Amino acid sequence: MEQRLILVNQLVKLGVAAAVSSALVRSVRFKSLLFKEERTLAEKIHLVLFIGVPFALGVVVRASVKNFLAADWSFECAILVGVIGGRVSGALAGAVVGFPAMLHGEWAALPFDVMAGTIAGMLRNLAQDKEAVWSFSPFIDLSVYRWIRRNFPRPRLDWQILFFGTILVLRFARGELSRYLPRHIFSVDSPQWPVEAAIYAATVMSIAIALKVWNNSRTELKLEEQQMLLLQARMEALQSQINPHFLFNTLNSVSSLVRFDPDTARDLIIKLANILRRLLRSGDAFVPLREELEFIDDYLDIEVVRFGTDKLKVDKQLEPATLEVLVPGMLLQPLVENSIKHGLSAKLDGGSICLRSQLKDGLLHIEVEDDGVGMGAANLLERPTGLGGTGIGLANVAERLKVLYGDAARMTIDSREGKGTLVRLRLPVLERRDSAAVPYYDVRSSTAR
After folding, report:
1. Where do the structural domains in the chain lie, given as residue ranges?
2. What is the DSSP string of 385-445?
């Protein structure tokens, strides 16, 4: 074969490696398989099929189309799957890509590819740190330099150098086998040593390209997972604080009622238990609005007893369609508490709180309004108030909305001295999908995680 054609095919081969690797990584299932270091037998089979089937088709194309040698990636595929998935995966991948060649009379290809995949899987088991597999680099001179720096004066075998050498040895063995059995195994070789060196380099580069492409996807998944864990940690920190003053005041109210009104005291204890039970369910980041309102009812019943039925009235204007829409847990309680403490408690004749909800323009609109003394929005946001003590107030609500929704949610405060305060929330609509609590939603992509 003309030497220029061989070199062109090696360049195309690198392009095939990058294109197929990039196409595979678009699959969510494939990315999840790459992310795992330990896989079940079913997952190993799925990994083999994901990678092996496209390159098995490439073997068919190479055998059917004259001079399109770059389509045959069987040798590299067996090694790649073996080093990622282990011996079983490597052997299965070798069988998948070797079977089409065997059907075309190249019977030696299947056992050789199975052997190559198995050896690559054994190398994976020798790696003390599995991340060494993903950091493999074709620039062996740099690897040798790092190895000398790391191991002098006590040298030890570097895994990446061992993997690099194994690829070259297996590639050499395939070339020698094709000389003795030219019709029974496929191999591209050249009598000119510069071209032969380019063939070996393209083999190593093809494997390295696939590993780099897939490792970038693994890195993105790890970053997403760390971001989600960070968000959950922030949410738990915002939800888990309980103001002891609220607990003490409620218990004092219960104590004063025990003697002359034991039934009311018993009801207060039940409602306090419901509140504490809800606060301890920190895993429920989202709950239906109906459940959030039930929590508010328990809280308001306690506050009515403390402040008096003649000083605190509650009006609800709720659209039925909004009750099953998911909202962040503990969303309304800080708003209601601010209305009571900073709006109504200062009025001698008390006042009222109005809760409204409606669906409008594809958003959930929630309003909490009081007719109290009013307070500037800036002061409201600065005040450390709520069941969370120094954490759960209006600033806390704004922070939680930012964590959960990003820029998709909005909170506004309109407060006028002597006339009251109105807090408006605009939230994306999240429908309840099942009876379980939803731990985290990415509202920007409308998918649950």
Report:
1. 3-230, 240-448
2. -STTTTS-SHHHHHHHHHHHHTTS-EEEEEEETTTEEEEEEEEE--B--SSSPB--EETTT
Residue with tokens 């490696």: 17
Element holding 339 (H helix, E strand): helix 333-339
Q: How far apart are CA 32 and CA 43, in angstroms?
A: 10
**CATH level 2 (architecture), domain 240-448:** 2-Layer Sandwich (3.30)
Is 366 in a helix, a strand, or coil? strand
pLDDT digits (tens, 9 = 90+) for 185-200: 988 888 888 888 999 9
Using DSSP, state whether 240 is helix, strand or coil: coil
- Encoding tokens for residue 191? 């009598």
Burial label, 348 (beta-carbon count in 10 A; 0-12, 13-18, 19+): exposed
Cα–Cα distance for residue pair 31/221, rounded to 1 Å: 8
**Contact between residue 367 and residue 356 where contact means Cβ atoms under 8 Å apart:** yes
**286-288 and 326-328 strand pairing:** antiparallel
For 303-339, what is each residue's pLDDT tens digit? 777 766 667 788 899 999 999 899 887 788 788 888 8
Running DSSP on this structure, what letter comes out for residue 344? I
Centroid of chain to Cα 376: 39
CA dist 322 and 365 (Å) reads 9
